[in-house]
Amino acid sequence: MRISRRAAGWLLVTYGLLGFVLVVSGALVGLDAADRFERLATDANDAITSAASATDAAADSFANVDASLAESRTSADAAAALAREASGTLTALATAMSLSIFGAQPLLPLAAEFTTSAEQAAELAETLDGVGASLGDTRTDVARITPQLEQLSDELTALGGGAARGAGTPPLRVFVIVLLAWLLMQAVGSLLGGLMLVRPRATT
Fold it and tell me: Looking at the whole model, is its pTM more than 0.85?
C-alpha cells in the first residue's frame, strides 16, 4: 500500500512531536534521576573509603596489640621463672631451718613459714605459666585476624576507586544530555521534514 505524500508528512510531524514530548519528559525525569544516582554513587564511594580507613586502622591496632601481647607474655614467662626460682630458694631455706641442733629444732616454726611461702611461689609460677599460655593463644588469634583485616581494607580501597571523592562516579548526566540532544535532533528533523511534506506544493 502506497502512502501519500501528505500522510507521510503528518506521520513525520507526529513522530517529531512525540520526540519533543520524550525530550521534555527525559529532561524532567532523567536529569533528576541521574543527579540522584551520581550523589548516591558519591556517598557510597565516601562510605566505602571511610570503611577502608577504619578497617586499616583496626588492622594497625591489632598489629600493636600483637606487639603488646608479645611483651606481656615475655614478662609473664620471666615472672613465672622468677617465682619458680624463689620457690626453690624458699624450699631450700625451709630445709635448712629444719636442722637439729643438739636434738632441738629451734628454727622449725620458721621452716613451716618458708615451706608455705615456697608453695605459694610455686602456685604463682603455675598461674603465670597459664597467663603466658593464654597470651600466646590470644596472639595466635590476633595473628589470624590482622591479615584478614588488611585484606578487607585493600578490597574496600579497590572497590572505592582508591581514593578521592567521586573518583568512581560515572558521568550519567552527560550521557542523559547527549541522549536527549540526539532525540531532539531527530524530533526537529522529523518535524521539519513533515511540515515540508504537508505544505502544499507551489503551483506554477
Answer: no
